[in-house]
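Thread: 3NM complex, take 2
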Amino acid sequence: MRAFCLRYEMRVHNKKIIGEPSLYLVLSEEYGAGRSVMSIAEEAVAGGIDILQMREKHKSREDLLRLGSALGELCRKNKVTFIVNDDPLLAAELDADGVHMGQKDLQRCPLDEVRRIIGIDRIIGLSTHSLEQFQRANTLDVDYLAFGPIFPTQTKDYSIGTADIRETLRVALKPVVFIGGVNTANLGILLKEGAASMALIRDIMQADDVASRTAWYKSQLAKGGINA
Ligand code: 3NM
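Output below.
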C-alpha cells in the first residue's frame, strides 16, 4: 500500500504541465519538404519549441517506434514536452509525455480507455472543431484542448475562423492550443483575440530556417496581444 502511495505521488508529480503560452509543433514527414523529421525537430528545439507531436499516419509500427524513440530522447534532454498522435498504446510504449486524440479517434478508443492505457501521469490532448464541441470537451478528462482549424489549411477541407476564440478562452477550464493555417502574417489576429498558445505544421516545418522561425513565434507569443 505504501509503495503504491509513493508511486502515485511520484507519477502525479511527474506529469508535465502544458504551460501558457506554448508553441507546439506537429511533425509529419509528408510536410517536411523532403527534410527529415529529426533534423526539423532538432532545429525547432534549438529555436525554443515547447511541445513536439509525432503525427505520422503512414509509417509502420517499427518505424514509429524508431522515430518516436529518437524524438522522445531529444525532448527529454531538452525539457520539451513530447506528444504522440492518435495512439495511446504507442505513447505509453515510448514513455511519451502524452497522447493527442482526434474526435474520430475517440470512437475507436474512448477517453476512459485512453486514460487507463496512458495512466494519470501523462497528458491527454483532444481536438475540437466548433464551439459546441469545445464546450462538451471542456469538462472531459483531458489536459488541454486544440481548437481549429482557425484559418484555411491544406490538412482540412474547412476552417472555422476566429469568431469563437474569445468565447473558448472565456469558458476554458484547461489550456487551449489554436491550430490550422497559422502563419507569420495571421498570428497577430490570434494574439489580438487573446490566444496564447498555437500549434503549427507547415509554417515551421517548411521554413528555410526552422530555428529562427521557431524563435520568432516564441518571441511573439511572449509579447502576447500587447504588441499584436
Ligand atoms: N489539426 P498547418 S488543423 C493537424 O483543426 C491539424 O484539428 C487541425 O497544419 C485541427 O499549420 C491541422 O500546416 C493542420 O495548417 C495544421
